[in-house]
Amino acid sequence: MDSLPAAVALLLLTSVAGCGGQMEPAGVIRQAAPAVQAPNPPAPVAAAADAGGAQLPAPALAERKIIFSGTLEIEVRDFATAHRELLSLLQQHEAYFAKSEIRTDSGQKRIGVFTIKVPARQFQALVDALAALGEPLRNSTDSQDVTEEYVDIEARVRNLKAEEEVFNQLLREAGTRLEEVFRIREQIRQNREQIERAEARLHLLGKLTSLSTITLTLRDRQEFIPPTAAIVREPPTFAERAAETFATSFAALRSLAEGVLLCLIALAPWLPVLAVAVLVGWRCVRWLAQEQTVRG
């Protein structure tokens, strides 16, 4: 009897048992089956494959796999106090920062953007606690149920592993027929690649459903004014004191000169009046002097 019908029948049987009749055999099997042509395979191989296929467990009902995510934007009265409270909340809810950025430009409102990872069971409790840090400007949550995808991939992995066992059995029976060995090994390699991709997707889904993601933005209500440190000055040297004294004296002299000049400018409009008064006074004095001379 030819090995091709036997191999195809065995793979179909294990695929149906592994997926509960809901999934088709992997595409690689349909493409690679014509390459397997081992004459007169022994009957125990079929029996072993049938027994193995009959013992594959049906996929169990999995727990719900849900990916939770949230986005919050909070305005706080005091940024430093809110940041300390945030660190305390993370410790209480077994969460951690996946990413953190704080901008503290002088004269502007401080802003902190945080990406938080938290266990799914603590997700809603942490969201409520974060919203209480200040005034929520935005508070949104989202969920994605990936249970169906997770169960389908699990069944596919079981199916592919069952097919891999059949290929390995055929490889052992191929013996020293090199052409057949090479073809079976290529089928095993393709099958293993599909298994690894499916398991990687399962791992990713498991990680996403076990750890939820929260994107938090904290905004300070008031503009940030950084504290200024006290400047400690050393005692001035003699040269510095002499230069400062000369500069002070020269500034005083310049101020005096400016004051005199300003006085002259202020008296300028009164010069004609003063000149007339002086002239009149001088004439009066001469007239009085002449009168006294005549009388004497």
What does this structure look like?
With 296 residues, the protein is α+β, with helices and mostly antiparallel strands. Among the domains are: 3-61 and 159-189, no CATH class; 238-295. The protein contains nine helices and five strands. The longest helix has 33 residues, at 178-210. The protein starts with a helix and ends with a helix.
Query: Mean pLDDT, as a whole number?
Result: 77
Structural class based on helices, strands and sheet pairing: alpha+beta
Strand order of the largest sheet: 2-3-5-1-4
Q: What percent of residues adopt helix (DSSP H or I)?
A: 55-70%
Overall, the morphology is rod-shaped
The count of helical stretches stands at 9
Distance between the termini: 178 Å
Rg, Cα atoms, Å: 48 Å
Order of helices and strands: HHHEHEEHEHHEHH
Unreliable stretches (pLDDT < 50, length at least 5) are 1-8, 12-62
Q: What is the beta-strand fraction?
A: 15-25%
Largest sheet: 5 strands, mixed
Number of strands: 5
Topology, element by element:
Elements: H1 3-19, H2 27-32, H3 43-54, E1 66-76, H4 79-92, E2 96-103, E3 109-119, H5 123-131, E4 135-145, H6 147-174, H7 178-210, E5 211-223, H8 238-267, H9 271-295
Helix pairs in contact: 1-3, 1-6, 3-6, 6-7
Features:
single chain; 296 residues; alpha+beta; five-stranded mixed beta sheet; 59% helix; 18% strand; rod-shaped; disordered N terminus; DUF4349; DUF4349 domain-containing protein; transmembrane helix; transmembrane
Summarize the structure.
InterPro entries: DUF4349. The protein has 296 residues and is α+β, with helices and mostly antiparallel strands.
